[in-house]
Automatic annotation (TrEMBL):
One of its GO terms (molecular function) is GTP binding. Residues 328-355 form a coiled coil. One of its GO terms (cellular component) is cytosol. GTP binds at residues 72-79, 122-126, 176-179. The lineage of its organism: Bacteria, Bacillati, Actinomycetota, Actinomycetes, Pseudonocardiales. This is Translation initiation factor IF-2. Keywords: Coiled coil, Cytoplasm, GTP-binding, Initiation factor, Nucleotide-binding, Protein biosynthesis. One of the essential components for the initiation of protein synthesis. Protects formylmethionyl-tRNA from spontaneous hydrolysis and promotes its binding to the 30S ribosomal subunits. Also involved in the hydrolysis of GTP during the formation of the 70S ribosomal complex. Transmembrane segments: none annotated. It is found in: Cytoplasm. Residues 63-235 form the Tr-type G domain. The keyword Cell inner membrane does not apply. Belongs to the TRAFAC class translation factor GTPase superfamily. Classic translation factor GTPase family. IF-2 subfamily.
Amino acid sequence: VLFHLGEMVTATASVADEVLELLGSEMNYNVQVVSPEEEDRELLDSFDISFGEDLGDEEDLEVRPPVVTIMGHVDHGKTRLLDTIRKTNVRETEAGGITQAIGAYQVETELDGEKRLITFIDTPGHEAFTAMRARGAKATDIAVIVVAADDGVMPQTVEAINHAQAADVPIVVAVNKIDVEGANPAKVRQQLTEYGLVAEEYGGDTMFVDISAKQGTNIDQLLEAILLTADATLDLRANPNMPAQGIAIEAHLDRGRGPVATVLVQRGTLRVGDSIVAGDAAGRVRRMLDEHGDDVTEALPSRPVQVIGFTSVPGAGDTFLVVDEDRVARQIADRRRARERNAELAQRRKRVSLEDLDAALRKTSQLNLIIKGDNSGSVEALEEALMKIDVGDEVELRVIHRGVGGITEGDVNLATASDAIVLGFNVRAEGKATELANREGVEIRYYTVIYQAIEEIEQALKGMLKPEY
Ligand code: GDP
């Protein structure tokens, strides 16, 4: 039947979703193509579990703290800032223990006389942020972009901004190292206008705070700016009165304690004794520890806690949920593990390839591109030329990230998260990036001449504009 449909395939080849549907209708079967996400939803449905949007009753919603990731160029002070915030503001516990690095921590601050909490993800940089996003998890509400005032906007600053904007996460800018001689915070503001970040004092709506992570200057102002940005742009509420759900942000195997996972509760309240499943790891919460290493018995939304009691190690970025009984947790984990195995066995179809652009565009009518090149001139030239392709209003070409240098794992993760194609212009993918791209089914295209890239993209875009039949 496939040959008659014009598909020259062998038994081991993979085919596009549409071909499967067509094949089904030819043979009188109703073929439904489901994404792994849909499949998982069906799995949870079968246990009568709702995951994600369902927040329960409006009157049960309570304000939850914003979850913040700190990003920026290397050496601009991300780690130092996380340390300074942790030391000066970490919320006191009875034991008052020294803070442990569990992957995230909460601080307490005051806004308009009211005590408020903020959760910080303790892994600086956009790699973790985007890796999590690539797995469909949204852990971050607000991104703090750190820019050293003595160095100004650098490539990874731009990269971090692109990643935050691609994820629709509001940005607060921390202009760091104002204690250094030659620091020029005004220049940073001016530079960032080019990326759509206009300071409030210049008539924009992005909050900039001049800080010194080293001397602890204006840290409170930064925390205030985070809360003000959250209050102004986001409706951060969650229902604490439901079974807990959220994300595993870090996990490892501890020699003495077994699998240990730091989870971020996003809704509901997590309690000791709960039956829990994260990705394909099941278990029961035997103990919960906070960032001081103190035992806690329950964790409210936006609270990060270390959970002991999983029977295997969940993956970072896996979503977790609490279920009625251990048996259900185990069954969900087993089913997911079986599905993973099947998925690995099946040859992976490319996430988006130029050949099935048609299908991808019909869904989104937007083609996302990531451009990496050997120098900024060529990247700009390629982007400009691509943007000139005129295919009418039905499809939109969007360059979500561009940069100089080889194609990195970060690029591939961003491509996964945004369903983008990566174009390499006179550059190659770094070793591990190719591996990741193959695993994730991200398409990387290499070019050495601009017109060839233009021609291919244009052909593909035009191809999908042909009338449907
Ligand atoms: P990261 O790569 O962005 O995490 O940067 P780090 O936090 O490791 O900081 C890089 C260097 O800059 C370290 O030597 C820090 O001590 C220093 N540093 C960070 N913040 C400041 C600051 O506000 N003032 C000064 N003078 N140095 C800082």
